[in-house]
Structure formats: structure tokens, C-alpha cells
Amino acid sequence: MDQCEDTDETVPLLRGQKNRSKAQSAGQQSTQHSAGPESEPSSESSNPVSTCLQWCCILCNTQRPNSPEAGPEPMPESQPVLGFEPRHEPEPKPIPEPVLTESEPAESEVELMSEPAVFEPEPTPELVPGPQPVMEFEPGSESVLKPEPEPVPESLPVEVEEQPGPEPVSQPECVPVIIQNQLDAAAPSSSRSQIHRLGKANSEDQDKRCEEIRTLWDDHSELKRWLVETLEDLDTKELKYFHWYLQNADESVDGFSSIRKSRLEHADRLDTVDLMVQMYTTTTREVTEKILTKLNSIKEKRFPDEMLQDDPSIPAAAADKEVSLMLSDFIKKVSKETLTQLLESLITENVLTDLERDSILEENHTRANKASCFADIVREKGDEACKRMIVHLEIINHSLFSELGLPSGHRSKSETISQPENIPEPAPVPRPEPEQYSSSPQNPQIHRPDNVVSEDQDQHTEDNHAQWLQETLEDLDISDLKDFQQYLCKSEIDLEILLKDLGLEQYYREKLSLSKIQEIDEKTINDEPVKCKSNIPWYFLKKLMMVNVTARDTKCTSVGEPNCNDTWALKLNIKSDTDDRLNALDIITALFLCSDGFVQQEMALKMSMCQFSVPLLLPNCDTTQCTLMLWAMRGIVKKYRPQHLLESKGFNEERIVHSQLPMVSFVRLGECSLSKSEILNKLLSSSQQYHDTFVHHNMECGDSPRKISNGLTEITWYFPCGNHNMDIFVEPVAIANLHGDIASFETQFSFLCQTSAAVFLFFDNLDSGCKLLMNQNHKAQIFLVGNQQNKSFSSSTLKEVATKLKLTHNNIIIKTKQKNDLDFVKCLRESISNVVGNSRMKMSVEQMADVAHELGILVDEDSPECQAGKQKADAITEDITDILKYKEDQLPLQGETWKELTFLEKEEFRLRKVGSENIEQYKSDLQVHKDKLRKKQNSYDMSAAMTCFIDAISSSRTERCYFLKWMRMNLDNLSCRKLSGLRELYKEKCKGSENKEEIKEIDRQLSNSSLGTEHFFREMGQIYEASVSLPETDPYRKQLQHLPKLSAQLLLDGFPLELVDGDASNIPLRWVSDVLSQLNDLVSPKNKIMVVTVLGVQSTGKSTLLNTMFGVQFAVSSGRCTQGAFMLLIKVNEDVKKDLNCDFMVIIDTEGLKSPELAQLDNSHEHDNELATLVVGLSDITIINIAMENSTEMKDILQIVVHAFLRMKEGGKKPKCQFVHQNVSDVSAHENNLRDRKLLLQQLNEMTQAAAKMEKKEKNKSFTDVMEYNPDTGNCYVPGLWNGNPPMAPVNAGYSEAVYELKKNILHLLGESEASANNILEFREWMTSLWNAVKHENFIFSFRNSLVADAYMRLCTEFNKWKLEFKKEMYTWVTKAETRISNFGTVAATSAASDMTQLLTQLKIEAASVLSEWETKLLDNLKEYFKQTEGHVYLVERYREDFINSAKSLRRELENSVINQLTAAADIRRGMKELDEIKKNHTTVIEKAVCELIDECRKKKVEMTETELDTEFDKMWSETLNMLSFSRQNPKDVYDSVSHCLRNNLSTKGSHAHKLLSEKNIKDCGLEPFKCKADGTWKQFKNVLTTLSFKDFVKMRQEKADSIIDFSTQFVAEKLGRKCDYHDTYIQEILHIIDERLEKLPDMNRDIEFEVSLKQHICGFAARCFQEMHLEFLRVNDPRRCLDENKEKFRDDFKDVFHERDQCQKKAAEFTEQCLKPAVEDFVNRSLDPDIIDEMLTKEQFSTRKSFQYSLLLDMLSDDKFDDFYRYCSSYEIYVKEKILQQVKKHFSNSSATFEFEDRHLKSRFNSINDAIKHTKEKKCGDLKTFVEEMCKELCNKLVISQDALGAFMTLNNSDQDQFAYWLTVSVEDMAETLRVKFKTTPFETKLKRLHVNPQNELFNIVVGCGKQCPFCKVPCEAGGRAHPEHFAVLHRPQGLGNRRFTATGKFVTDICTSSVISDNRFYCATNGKWHPYKNYKEFFPDWNIFPDSSLEASDYWKYVMVKYNKDFAKAYYAEPADIPDSWTKISKGEAKASLQVSFGIK
């Protein structure tokens, strides 16, 4: 990979690396927040590699990336970082040395020269004694550092090496850049100090410089690595020649410049790399290849003599070399104390000055620098000074004197200093104890939440670390430091490249978390093969989290991935050796390095389950440091059966880190021809089954070179199963395997030698290894394992080494030709078995941490957060000895008190023990008892354990997670030990039959000995629940308000929340609800969830299934089964959110059904039913886990499940289900089990029918009726979990793959779900309602469920809108149709129909078409509504048919109404047409007579006076009228018509009804108030089903009769107000109203006598009214009267025509006033009805039925008037309509809304009239009559113009057409203004009377249900639609308010229906004198659904009302006041209001 591609990405990686040691972990928090390129420098100190680099830079004065010291300005990009590109001019010229001057400012920065000649001080070949030199800048420089220089003697000159280059040019604005590492070797220490000051001064641009330097470094990283590898292949002489050629190169001949000899003189390979790269940059590879070519061409490697002149073997150079070696040794070994004493001694002898001493001590940072500076100064002063130093060294530190090889005496340097034999390598730096730089766990200030961690503490920890690192590196000299630095960089770059290839760069800084790994994304369900390296880690993690043993197969399948840059190779399909192949060990190492502790722990656990080896020692990026993975392995728990438990069949179960086991380690020395890892796999595998525990070279990509995993030490374990024939080792043993050569990993080797019982060393050649083996502190036996077949194998060397190590022949295992692999493995097994059997060296992983600390190995558990979490967990768990007693003392709230509260809660709902007691009093007593228990809970002080627990989980996120992990492990360990002991005791006691009581007690203890973190959370929940019962102002309650948020945060952190308490079988609703609310607040708006749950028999692997499927961590260890139900949250990634339509998935794990512990309890079946109903109800998909195909328990489970699914279907939810058949491994299982699946479906269908019968829902005939289930796709066959015999069996790959397929199928089903995802708050509401339903044992959802209620209410509201639109459309259509009918036969008629019958038929056809169209539209709206996914529509799916029926019923209702209206209008128009014809004829005669009179008067030719004209007109009028024949109109006998209609109505009632009708004439009916006859009522009372007494029955009948009479009277009044003629449809409508209302009264609808008498009374009254209305109509329309009314109009027209006056203005005004104005007014009044209704529906009060009922009841409560409550209860409809009318009047009386409506309609008609005038004018009518007729035709469908007025207007009209049109337009404008004024000033009350529809009636039908009353409390039905088959009400009330009383005492009944129907109480049926259980009310009232009160407080409203008005109601109903329960009297008005909000779901 090209490192130049993106340097920005590498920078954060380098900066963000973190060490796991205690010292560095303290600074982790700040480090994680400063990972980007913009990070503050202070945050970088926690990066171990970067920190080392920084201090290396300081010590060797080499500027490196991330150096904490500000160095000089960086080079330009073209220049390398570690040196200077020299100038190549042929003539070198000296350049003046820059000098520091005091006059220059100290703050100025060193600027970078644009094109400078770079100054480069070099080492002086010969040391010249003299004073200390000083570095000065060139005078005139503007940007020069000015430190505070100490006085320097002027006599000290500066030695400067001449450099090639041009003449110096003055550049005043530039200063030279001095790189310090070149000066370190040359300049004296004081000079170096000056340079250090120079580097420190400029700190402002440090980050910028670091970035540039890093860029330069990274640009050539690949080239440098290649060059290092190339030079490492050269031996010493070859390297010397290589240097010689570099320094003697001739550019003209060789093509490249030379490097000066002085720079190459002391350069090693790494220095050479730096020098070449900085000199040659991009041509470095070419230069190298040229030199290597020359090198290869020299035969026998004969080197030129010139290059040998500096060889130490030449005497001339030897003496100087001896001095150099001695001083080098001195610098390495001298201590600070010795150095200080030497300085003081030499000052005393005047060898050194005080100034020189101060310069050495103060201006050098490290001990090595101080010693180097000291040596340089002394050496410069000459031989005498050196002699004096040696003398004093002998005195001060004789041991160092001797170690340097200096003889006693004072000989000359050349004689006395001999060359040391070998310069020893620096001793390994001891690792400081963690306590030196980590905070004490006892310090409470360190363990704070993330957001309050003290910066001072972080800084303090970093400072300690830095100080330790600085002191450690001081012991290294310059060369060692450079090697160290270069090695760090090289390792770091290798790691960086790999992480970048894998796409893990960001996770090296911000570690991978479990939530990220568990996240559901495209990779989760994507089966595409790995195509690029960046996908490999996720592929591995995906497989590993699902425990798939193929996880390590990590090869990419595509060569065309982005990482490949060789496009030509790609086109040819040529793969390089390294293309996409990555060693699995590198992947594992990288993932462990990039993961946090919790992911590491989970990875180790899953790897252990796969029987993979797990990391024991994880190499950190530099491979010289490693980490003991103790924390990562803590999650591994193993069960096994050792030899000593074979007979008892017992087993051991413990955490692997606690197990005291012998460990056998396998290592190799050098190259080895035997595959150590492969041999180990064979060693650990049985003959029947081979398994790759360790990665070896013959595995997939196993032969790929390891890049970062060398030094990785893995561990695995062998555990016996107790079967001699199967066990390889009879006792457990740990096997460790070190990858890499021990010569390179001595620390790891030392660790293994000290912790192992034996170390097996694989080798081919032992030549170099003897010393290494001898140096180790062996606690382990050493076994040498060699391969004799290898050429380098040496028997003599082996014998020599074995002798030195004192090994016997048993410790030497050699693979010979005679030994095949099997025999060889057997030998190894025997040796290991001997070691395991005989060794006393047993050590747990936990104990290995001490050895690790001694060796400087980091331990992952040493982080402060982990230690703080452990400390807090230990503080809670360390004192637990007796779990039962501990629970009682420390967790008291969840004990018997909580169980008793649970019983009371369920009894409060179920009322099983109420007996004959008053229900409400019983419930009141239960509430009092509950309050006492809550007070008892609140009386407990919070225990010490809970105080610590809550404090611990309130800490920072990381520490909190560590704490909970430690708690879980500690408690699991405790429970495991406790259970193990109890099991042994149980087994022992069971041997004797006399110990039954003891056995029973032990059995109880076994059940109660479980203790986990869930108990502490449960206690926290109970503390919170109890506190909620306290007043809101209570301080204790306020202190606990943060607990739900804590739990919500833990949910987000991946910890489960207990939904159902497994011990008490209850949900702490308030606690769980508040936690979910807080969770919603934390994640909003991303709060959509989908739910997956699992159900099945106990111990069938439900938790394991979920853990495998989703990578979660439900508890499956310690032999403890899940109890209750737990939920976990898994995030859904953005890339699949659109498919799943949710933000999170909720996974619910449940307690197993048919639990043996519960089987002995009486309510075990009930418990299973409750749990199954709850989880099925909560889930979107339910997994039914069946352990074995056709198992015996399957039928029982399926029965429970079917009941649960049926209840959900009835509740509106139709969940999906997947059956999982476990332990079915046959590949043909799916095909072979076809018959079994059919049998299963048959059983499910049978169970569904049986369950439906029990639930009284027989309409459900098959399983698919109640849930979505496909027998082919709904079954999943899963093989067994283990592939072999545990404990050594890995997880079956088939299991993982089958579970993966199941997961994909589940996600696919969720994505296809039609139902929308719930948000968290909706899930909370659903859970609350569901659990309340479960507690009621009434699993059919009531409308207490707010989600169902809201969904139903939305459906009702939408349906009402559609219905209203339908009715408005038909109203408008009917209005237009009536207009057409009214205009038929007039001049305005446009219909082609020849007669009224044809027109009526035509209109009926049109009406049917419009009705069908709107019916279809309404049904389509319903269909579309139920298709939508939002709004929980699926919850009201069961009501779809009800609303469809309502739509059809509405169509029928409107059709009947339309036909009736059209028929009535047509019949009335027929009658009017006859009259109109008569009037028209009479008018024509009169007009003719008037015309004749005019002619006659004009013939007289005399001027006639007005009196004479009047006389003549009167005479003519009388004569003409006498000539006309006025036939008398015969009035219709309305009584006869009404009587006929009544007989037709009662024709189906039988002969008795006809007999009753004939007994009384209709004319005699309705004359007196209606009264029920007691004798007839008594007869019927005995045959009618009622719950009332006879007296109440009579009174109730009278009230209902009065109510029906009132409505009929109102209807008659409406018809009378229209002043039209009578029609039979009117009486038919009245009879229809009576029938409807009688149907709502079940106590009356079969009483023929009552029905006949009531109808006769109403019809008699109506007939009289209609008869009068008919006679008035005939009177008004009498032709003679009409002519008389128009006499004066004829007179005026006669005079106008006689006098020939212009009539245009007059006639226009007359036409407007008489014809248009009444028509417009009538249109506006008719149009106002729907406007008023629409306006009222916009008010919140009328928006939904729920809102209306709530506001009505709230208003009543606010007004607090008894009369309101009484009328509401006794005359509901009348009262409600009055209230609606009041609201209408109030709204419109105070607003201008009606005027706005009227004005809008007025404008529309005004425009229509003007348009008609315009269009008529365009037609050019011949005369005015034609003009008016044409205009009327234009308006025929818009206005009904009076024919009388029009006829009168048309007579004697001789107006000009155009003038008339003009004046008509003016008149119409005046009319509009007049009407506008009239509308504005008319009171709303007056307008209300003119409406054609009563708004209160329409609004009542919209916002109130059908009105049918509850048979017990008389509350009205509130169901939507008109055709619903069942009635229900939201809020039932005490039955006394419905006038129910006790027979014996006459007192009101206080029972509430919602409680009665679930009790064992009975109701009395007076008609048959029998008592019937309330539970069976459906048998008597099948159309009523009375749902239990889910909240218990919902009825507090009516309880409050009854308490307050108990006596008033008793007086009104003539009863005795009720005995009020005590708890009712405590209900306040505020609580009553709150109960309303609960009932109606008002937030």
C-alpha cells in the first residue's frame, strides 16, 4: 500500500494509540477525545508508542512526530526528516557558524528558509582541548531564538566542519534550521543544550511541524522498510564497502552525488537508510541497486585499501578506538551520583569550572547526555584531564572503575585503557510496579463519571508516566535510543498499514464496543463473500458472534478490491503472493487491539465455545511489550468431570481464570520444520474428530506471513468428560502456544517458563539457543522437541545442550523417520500426561498476573476503571455467606412483601375471594392493605449493599460496565458454589427415605439460592415503586427520581431490563414504565422498535438461541435458568433502517414454560398462560422453541401458545410466529417432516377450535385465523448445539448456520410487516394495557388500552369525516333535485321529462348512481385506511367488518331518506302544478280584461283621473272574477292517511296489534299526556328480561316513552315550520324514529301493548298537526286568494300602461324583490346547515367522541350541579343535545362565523344571477317575457323562484329589454346589500329556527355512539358506526346511578359493572326470580361487552359524584342512599378529574 495516499488518516492513528498499563489507562478518557489531527498536544501523552517516540526525540535530539518538545521548523516537503540534503557544488566553502546574541528577542521563532544553504555541524575528527564552544546565529537574522543564555567565556571558539556549497549569501529574513541528532554526535554538550533551548522555544506551531514531519516520514516509509531489509542482508564488510562507495561516488560517472565521509563514519544500517533517503529521495532505490550491482561484481569481496584505513585492526586507529570504547562504556554505566561527585572533584582540582559543571547538569535532560557532555569536555581538555578523571573515578566508584577494565595506577591513556571484550547490551528496563504510576483503588476521587473526571488527576497520572518513561530512557545512549526509536516506528507503521487495510484505524483510538458489533446492519444479513480486506474483520466478528467455527476462514474471494493498485495484474488475473491473504492470527490480534475490554471478553468467550485458542499474552504494537489477557478470559466458564468424580457422576464448574491447572507451553527456537500448532491440534483432537484449535500453516491463509501477531501467546484447555475411552487426558490441563521465535520474545518465554509445568521447545538447530535457555529462571520442565529429518539437526549440539540443562532422555522427543505423525503425537501425549500427573506446578490465570507484573508484562485488568469496578463489586459481594439471609437483610423489599403486593394487585383485578362481601368495599380494603405494605417498604432504610450498588452504577459509563460485569461474575461464582453444595447435600439426603422434610427444605433452598444482578435491579425498582407512593414533595422520593434514567442508560449500554419479576410473576409497572419513558427521552426521535421474543420449555436453549442469533449476553451459566422475562436493546444501522422501519430491535428472553419448580404449584398453568400471553402480545415475531420433534411436552406448550395468539387476535394484533425444532440434524428433516408439519398444523387447528370455544370466540376455526403462519416457511430445523461430546466439543457449525438462516428469515418477516413499528412510548402503553388485561384474566383487549382506544378513535373520526362528506354531498344533491322538482312545469324548467313521474324516475336513477359512487368511495377509503402502516391500524382490524356494514347501512339510510324527500317533493309539486295552472289561466283572463279596459279607456279620448281609473278597474275586476269558476279544493283526510301508515307499520306485529288499533280511533289519540298502564305493564313485566323492580320498571318505561314523544314532537315541529303540504313520508319517518328508539330499550321491544299505545298517541298528535298544516297550505294556495293578493299590483300595472310610463326600473325592482330575493334567502338558509356542523367539528371538544365525552363530563364536574348529573344519567340524549345546542349557540353568538357563511353563499348566488343576466342579454330575446323566462332557465338549478310572484310580474309588462337588464343589475346589487345587512343584524337564535336541519341532532349522531344503554348501570354505548354488533362504553359507573338498588333494603347498589363482571357475584332477574352470575351476563345480553376496569382508578369520577350526591340521587329515584365504601370518601375533585384523563387517555 502506498503510504502517500492519505497521510491525514495515519496521523490520528499514530496519535491515538493507547497502552493498557495502569499508568496510561488513567489518561484514557482524555485521550479518546483527542484523537483527531486537531487534538491538543496534551492529549497525546497517553499513546505509548508516540510517548516513547517523543522522549526518544528529546534524548537523541531528533525531531519526531508527536514530540512533546517543540522542535525547529520542519524542512520543506522535498526534504527528509532526519537530516539535510547537502549541496552538491564541487567547491566547498566554509559557512560562518550562527551565534546566539543577547540582543535578539527570546520569543522569536526559528523561520524556515525558502532556499537556504542548510547548516550541518559534523563531528570533528580530532578532539582539540579547549574551552566550551557556543553556537551563535548569524548577525542580522530577524527571527532568532533568545534563551536566557548564561555568560560564556569569549575565548571559547567554535569548531565547524567545512561543508561543500556555494559562497554564503546574506539572507536576513531566514535562519538556518539545525537538526539536533547530527549535533549530538559532534557538538559538545553545551552546544547541544543550546540547541535544545532552540527547539523548546518555538511551541506555537508544534502541531503544524509535527504534521509536516510526519508527512515526510510517511512519504518514504515503504522505501525505508525496503532499504532496511536490503542492508540487513549485507555483512559487516559488505556494509563498509557500501559506505565507501557512497562517500566516493562521482556524480558525472555514477549518476548520483556522494555523501560526506564524516556523516557515514559512525552510521549503522538505520542511519544509512536515513542519510540515503534524505540525499537521494525518490532515486534511493536506483542508487542502492547500482551499488549492489558493483558489490556483486567484485570477486571474493576484495575491498579497496582506501576504505580500510579506519579499520580498528590497524594499529594507527586502535588507540583512539580504545578510548572511544572506554568512554562509551562509561557513558552507559555511570550513575548520576557518581557523575556529580566526579564533577565536584574535578572542580576542586581546577580541571573544570563551576560554569562548566552547571552547563553539564542544567542544560542536559538525561543522565546519558550529562555523562556524554562531561566526557566530551574532559577529553577536549587533554590527556592530563583524562588521567585526573580516572584517578577520581577509582576513588569514587571502584566497581565501575573495574568494570570499565581500567588498571590501578596512573598510566597513560594509550597504555592503560584496553579494549573491552564485548560491549554488553543494555540491561532490560525493569517495569515499574503499577502502584508507582496508578491511583489507588481506595481513592474515591478517581472513580467519577466520565463528565466529571478531574483534569488534575489525569494530568497527574500522565506526569507520573512521563517521568517513569523519561528516567527509563535516560539509561540508553544515543545509539540505543535511535535503534529503539526506529524499531518503534517500523512496528508502528506495520500495525498502521494493517489496520488501514482492515478498515480499523478509527477503532484503534476509539475502541470497538459491543453495541457496535451487535448492531444490525447490511453485513448482518448479507451472504456475499468477502471482497476486500476491510470486510474481513466484520466477517470474522459476524461469524464469531454466532459461534461459527468457520469464523477464521478469512480469505478474500475477489482480486478486484480497492486495496489492489496493480490494475495490469488485475486485468491478467495475476495474484501476488500477498494479495488479499491475511493470516487469521493477525486478524485476531488486530481485533483484540481495537476492541474494548467487554468486546475482548465476549470474543474470548465465543472463541472458547468454538474451541479456538484464545490470547493469553497479546503483543502490543511494538511486539516487545505484551499484555496478559486476564480480564478477557474471565467470562469463560467450563464444566468437566475429573477422574475423582467419575463414580459419583459429579462435575466441576468454575471460571477458567480461577482454575488451578497445570499449564504446558509450546515454543520454538529459530526456524522449525515441524508445525508446532498443527501438532498441537492433532494432540488435542480425538481420533474420531479432528479440530483446529490453533491456527497453523495448512489452514486457510495460515501460511500468509504474520505481520503483527508474532509474539502472540495463545492458550486453550483440555477438560475430561469422565469417559476413559474418550478422554485424551484424565485431568484438565492448559495448553499455551507462543507464536514466533523465543529469541525475539524473551519476555514471553520467561513468562511461560515461570508459569508452566512444562515447556516443550521445538527446534531444528540449537546453536544459538543454549545461552537463552540457560539464562531463564526455570520453574518448568524443559522438553526439547526436534526433527531428525531436518538437515540442520545436530545430535552433538543436542547432547551438549541437554547436558547443560541436565535433561534426561525422557525430556527429549525426536521425530525420526520411523515415527509417523500419530506415533509422534502419542509420545507428546504421554509426556504431557506424565507432567500433568506428577507436577505440583499448578497456577490459575489469575495468579499469573503476579508473574506478569514481575516481568514488566501489562495486565488488562490493571486499568483504573476495571479496578474501581472490581473494588466496588467486591465491597458488595465479599461478605455474602448465606444467600437467603443476605437477601432478607440487604434486599428486603423484593421478599414476601413484594409477593404479597403482587397477590393483592391480581386480587384487586380478579376478585376471587370477595364472596358475598360488597365488591367496592372489598376493593377498598385491598387498597388499604396495599398502602400499608407500601408504607412498610418505605419504612426500610436503604441497605448498605443497595447504597453501594446505586452509587456504583452512577459512576462513569466504563466503570459502571466493569462494575456490573464484576458483580455478575462474583454472584455467579457465589451461586455456583452454593448450588454445588446444595446439590451434593440433596443427593446425599435422597439416599434415605426418612429425610423428606429435610429434602423439601433443601429443595426450597435450591430454588431460592440464586442471586444475580437482576435481584439488585429488582430491589432498585421496588425502592422506586415504593417511593412513588410518597407525596411528590417528599425529599426521599426526589432523591430517587434519577433511578429510571440510570436503568435506561444501562439498557443502551447493552444490559438487560427485567420486565417480569420471575420470583413474584409480576411487572413493577411504574418502574418499567418510567424506565421506558427515560429511554425514549434518551433516543428520541429515533425511538421506533420491533420486538422479537422466544417461548419454549425450560432448559431447551432459548437464551442460547437468542445469544447465537443476535450476539447478545442473556445469562446461560451457573446452572441457573432464566426466570421471568428480560428485554435487551439492539441498535439498527441506518443502512437497513429503511427496510425494517425501526431504530432498535427489542429482544425478549423468557422463563421456560412447564418449569419443574412451578409444576408443583397450583397456579403453574396460570403462570405459564400469563407469561405466554404477555410475551406474545408484546412481540412482532414470536419464536416457539421446541426441543425435539414430536416431543411429549409440545402439545402442552402449543395449547398455551394458541390461547395467547387467540387473545392477541381478539385484541386486534395478529402476530407472526416461527417454530424452531431443536436437535434435528438430518439434512432431509424439512422434507421428511412434511407429514409431521401437516400433523402439527392439524393439532394447532384443533387447539385453536378448543381455545376459541373456551374464549367464546368460535368463529376462529383454524390456527391461521389467529396468526400469520405458513407451515412451509414457518418451521426451522436446528441441529444440536455441540459438535461432539462436551466439554471439548465445539459448537456445531450446522447450528450456527441454521440459526443464521432463522435470523435472516425473522428480519425479512419484520421488513415485510404491514404493521408499523411502535415507538417506545407506545410499547410502554401496550405493555401496561396488556399486563392489566392479563391480571384481569380477561385477555380480550378493552378500550382501556390506550393504543387500541386511540386507533379505534382515529378510525371512528376518519369514518365520521367520510360519512359527513357523504351526507353533505347527498344533502347538496337533494337540494338541487328538489329545486328541479320545484321548477318543473314552470318557465324555469329545463328538464326533458314530459311529466313528473318521468322526472322522479330519472332523479331516483341519478340518486342511486350518486349513492353507489359515494358508497364505493367510502368503502375504498376504509380499504386504504386499513392498508396503512402508521397509527396501529392493525389493532382495530377486527372492527373492519363493523365499519363496512356501517357504510352499507348509511347508504341504505340515505337512500331511503332521499327517495322519501324526492317522492314528497314530487307529490307536493304535482298538487302545486294543478294550482299553478289554475292561477295561470285566471291570471291570463285578468290580464286580457285589463288590456281590454285600457283600450276602452283610451278610446274615450278624455283624460281620466286616478279616481275614474280606479272605478273602472274595480268594475272590471268584479266582473271578471264573477266570470271565473273557482272550484272548491277538497282537503285530504290526514287522519285516514296516518291511520293507514300505522296499520302498515304494525302489520308484522300480529293480530293482537290490529285488535288494539281497532279499539281506538286515531282522532281520539294524543289528546292527553301519555301514561303507562300499570296492569298492562305488570303482564309484560313477567315476560321481559330485566334487572329492575316492577315499580322501577314502570317508571323507566314512562321516562323512555316521554323521551320518544319529545323527539316525535320535535320532528313534527320541524315539518310545520317549513309551511309545506302534508305527505305520508312524514308519518312514516316518525314511526321509523319510534321503532329505532324502542329497539334500544331491551326491556320494551317485545311489549306490543306498550308499543301500540305509544304509536297511537304520537300518531294522533301528529295527525292533528299535519291536518292543520294541510288546511293552511290549501288556504295559502287558494287561487281566488292569490288573485285578490295581486289585485293592487294589477291596478298599478294598469295605470302605468294606460299612462305609458317607463316600467323598467319599477319592474326590475319588483322582479328582484318578489322573485329573486325570497329564492336567494331560501338558498342561503338551506346552505347554512352543513356549514354550522363543519364549524362545530373544528372545535377540539367535537373533534372526536373521546374529546366530546371528556369535555362534557369535565364541564359537569366544574359546574358541580346535581341537576346536570341527574339529567345526564336519566335523560342522556335530551340532556346531551341541549348541551350541544348550548355550545352551538355560544360559539356562533359570539362570532361572525354565520355571517361569513351567509355572505359566501350570497356572493355565489349574486354571481349566478349576474351571469344569468349577462348570458340572457347575449341571446337577444324578442321581448321582456322571453328575457325573464330565459333568465329563469339559467337559474333553474340554483334558485327556486316563486311561480305566483313570477306570474304576477309577467302581466302587463312592456319594459324595454336592455333597460330592464340594466335596472335589474342595479336592483340585484341593492338586494345583495340589503340581505347582507339583514344577515349581519339577525340574531343567531332566529337563524337557527330557519335551518332545515337541527345541528344538535347531527352533531349528536357524530360525537355520540348508538346510545344503547348498559343493562346494569345504564351508561350509553359509545361504539362507532351504526351497524356495530356489540356495544361498549369507556366509563361505567356505580349501578345505583342507573337506579339499581338492593331488593331487601332499597339502598343503591355501589357495585360497578367493570368489577362485577369479573367477580363471582350474581345479579337478580326479577322476571324469572332467579340469580345469575355476572360472569355469564353475555348469555342474557349478548350484544354488550363490559370490559374490566384496567386502571382501578378510572371510575373514580363517578365514585366522587355518587359520594357527593348520594342523598340527592336517592331522593330523585325514591330510594335509600347507598352505603359508600371508605376509600370512596377520600377521592378528591382533583382525583376525579385525573381519573377522567386516565379513562379517556388525555395526556
Mean pLDDT: 75
Overall helicity:
40-55%
The neighbouring-strand order within the major sheet is 10-9-8-5-7-6-1-2-11
Strand element count: 21
| Structure class | mainly alpha
What is the gyration radius calculated from CA atoms?
52 Å
Shape category: elongated
Largest beta-sheet characterization: 9 strands, mixed
Strand content: 5-15%
**CA-to-CA gap between the ends?**
61 Å
* Count of alpha and pi helical runs: 83
Question: Could you name the ranges where pLDDT drops below 50 across 5 or more consecutive residues?
Answer: 1-206, 306-318, 410-461, 559-578, 1340-1344, 1581-1587
Describe this structure in words.
The protein has 2043 residues and is mainly alpha-helical. It has 83 helices and 21 strands. The protein has a 9-stranded mixed sheet with strand order 10-9-8-5-7-6-1-2-11, sandwiched between helices. Strands 12, 13, 14, 15, 16, 17, 18 and 19 form an 8-stranded mixed sheet that branches. Strand 8, helix 32 (770-775) and strand 9 (781-787) form a beta-alpha-beta unit. The longest helix is centred in the C-terminal third of the chain and has 60 residues, at 1440-1499. It is elongated, with a radius of gyration of 52 Å. The model is unreliable at 1-206, 306-318, 410-461, 559-578, 1340-1344 and 1581-1587 (pLDDT under 50).
